Amino acid sequence: MQPEELLNPDNNSDQPKPAADSPLLSLERDLKFFNESIHEVAVEIMVEGLSSYPIFVAHQHELKLGELILDRHDLNSDWSIHASTIEEFTERGVIKPELKDRFINSYKNPNDFMCVFVVVPEGANFVYVPYKK
Q1: Which structural domain, as residue segments, surrounds residue 123?
Q2: What pTM did the predictor assign?
């Protein structure tokens, strides 16, 4: 996929809606809007003992990582969000086992920050977004 396809000039309903300036601005809007729901899922992951390290995957295309919790098609938003854990990321090879400790050391408090793995055609990266109180 080419970067310009992110802007969706042909309005194909299977593609993401255009963002004003950058797809990441629309991600910021979506994360603010779904802040409370994402925080509830993070707490549930930790309380149920699934993981101490919840990770949310933000994407605009099909992705098989984690469990879908917010579907952009159903919610008329720009980004879909999946819930995952460090354990799945390590098992699937997204985080190499030898780098797991480094990831844990840089992981921010999950009660205050959502850990988001942002996937775009150019690549992917982790970002930490504070929960709004």
Answers
A1: 15-130
A2: 0.80
